[in-house]
Amino acid sequence: MYSSPRILHSPLRLFAKPPQLPCRHMFRAVRHTSTGAHKTLPQPSRWPRRLAYAAIFSGLGIAAGKWVDNKFAAPPLPGTEEDVKRLEEIHYIYERGLPIVQELREHPDYMEADVYGNYTEEDKLQRLSSGPLRGSRGLALQKIFYNDKEKAAINVAYVGPGLEGWPTVVHGGALGTVIDEHLARLAIRHLPQRTGVTANLQLKYRAPVYSGNFYTFHATLDEERSTERKAWVNGEVRDPVGRLCIEATALFVVPKTYQLQEVGERY
Q1: Domains and CATH numbers, the chain
Q2: DSSP label at 58?
Q3: pLDDT at position 257
Q4: How far apart are the C-alpha atoms of 138 and 28, rounded to whole Å?
């Protein structure tokens, strides 16, 4: 509350005697006091500020409640109306909201492709990542960017809440599946037989991967160690701001005594 300044006087001054001057006449100090009353400034009303705070915190509470509901509610089943709507939103973000997609599209050495581009819809249902893990709850979207000149590939993938091991955190095994397939794509493009199997896969988890977001899966062929029947591939998983989440190294081989189906160029 506003109040006018006051001059504080010590109570001892009321009993102090006036000083004795060495002259014949005594002079009294005249103290002028104002006879007018102090004016009190009107106090601003606090209700507008209180209402503004109430509106802000109410909005934050509603937004937080919706976020919690979306995070912990059961994800929609593939093919439902809600699932289709979420898939449309995810595709929209991929097309308009990811700077790395625009950068890769503008790079002359990268070629964009869909996962399992040379597979039928029936064949896709028989694959783990494109069958049971399909829909907005799982691997809602995967787009591959190949760079044959540098022997590299980048997978821009959306990981949904159905892949969680802990709340909001994607299961390490689910991530291992995506990593294994992505590194294999690059290995198979190198192997003349256009097929192969995983002989060894090593993963180092550096940071959590959170559901409901896009991540980039990187793969680079180790040309010095690779042959016509063996392909060594190094990989990384990075979050939307480029932070390293997982490091990977894998060896893919073509069996000598077991005949494998040719996977093709767009696996």
Answers
A1: 75-253 (3.10.129.10)
A2: H
A3: 82
A4: 95
